[in-house]
Amino acid sequence: IFLRTNKSLKHPNKDIEKIIFSEHEQSVIELFINFMGLHGVSSQLPSFMLDKLSRNEDGDQGWTLFFDFFNHYLLWIFFDVISLKNYPRSFNENFKDSISKILFSMLGIKEYDIAKKYLPFAPLLLSLRRPKTHIERVLQVNFKLKDKLSIIENLPHQILISNSQKNNLGIKNNILGNNFILGDKFISYQNKIAIYIKDISYQEAVKFMPNGTKHDDLKNSIMFLTNNEFCVDLYLKINYSSEMKFVLGEENTAKLGWAKILGNTQKKYTIVYMKLCE
After folding, report:
1. Which of 102, 149, 203, 212 meets the CB 3.0–4.6 Å disulfide criterion with 145?
2. How does pLDDT run across 3-14, given as a tens digit for each residue?
3. Pfam families per the record (predicted)?
């Protein structure tokens, strides 16, 4: 059996990609997997190298075969370790045992609270390139928001230019036509996303607001799932209820600034915006 790693960068939906049976006299079975490879979606190599390897049409020979030479031995070591019959394996509560620590290190998990929630999604966590649809699905399951939570991409984000990068008269630090920048800030569309939660009640929305019971949990979850690469905003589309209407002297209505409505409204909902991660 020759263990090989799928070089494609598409997010896999299974652990074993394919099995090829050789027609030679000494039959060799090639088993292609989607985890723990030196190339492919689980690799730690830079993206430009992985992209070049994935586009290399060498018929699974050449560089692909070179990497799979090492992948084969790496995967066999992993297989032998988990297949040992006489090795004592025990797990303690709260994942305090050494085996759990090793497994969590492979997944990049440092906090045990996160481990309890995201361990069922281990194949997703093994990949450093997590698609938006999969992250949405994970958040929907963990926060019980099926078909209510989505992620908005490519939002405008204002970035301030540091003093060392600004143009200064009399100092040769920029070249016109090369790296010359005007102004104190610029707009980027690659550094910001938003979590949009719709069709929820006011009492449910309060839990996601600052000081709410689910606010920090949602913040830590999105930072973990996106490797803390983005600034994140939160949009809450709240269904209208009578407790959102401002009534002077009433203490059971919404707090000022958190979806409190002044006067009469014809809308069946209101949208609250706040920053989640900066």
Report:
1. 149
2. 888 887 776 777
3. T6SS_TssG (PF06996)
pLDDT at position 82, please?
Answer: 66
Per-residue pLDDT band at 30 (split at 50, 70, 90): confident
DSSP 128-189: SS--HHHHHHHHHHHTT-TTTEEEE----EEEEPPGGGS--TT-----TTTT---SSEEEES
pLDDT digits (tens, 9 = 90+) for 212-263: 899 999 998 898 888 788 899 999 998 887 777 766 666 666 666 666 665 5
What is the C-alpha separation between 218 and 213, in angstroms, rounded? 10
pTM of the model: 0.65
Kindly list the domain boundaries of the chain, sorted by start residue: 2-87, 127-154+190-277
Q: What is the chain's mean pLDDT, rounded?
A: 78
Residue 210 pLDDT greater than 80, yes or no? yes
Token output for 236:
């809450």
Which residues have C-beta within 8 Å of that of residue 34, sequence separation ≥ 6? Answer: 5, 6, 12, 14, 15, 16, 17, 40, 41, 42, 123
Sign for the pseudo-dihedral over CA of 112, 44, 4, 1: negative
Question: 75 CB contacts (<8 Å, ≥6 apart)?
Answer: 3, 5, 33, 36
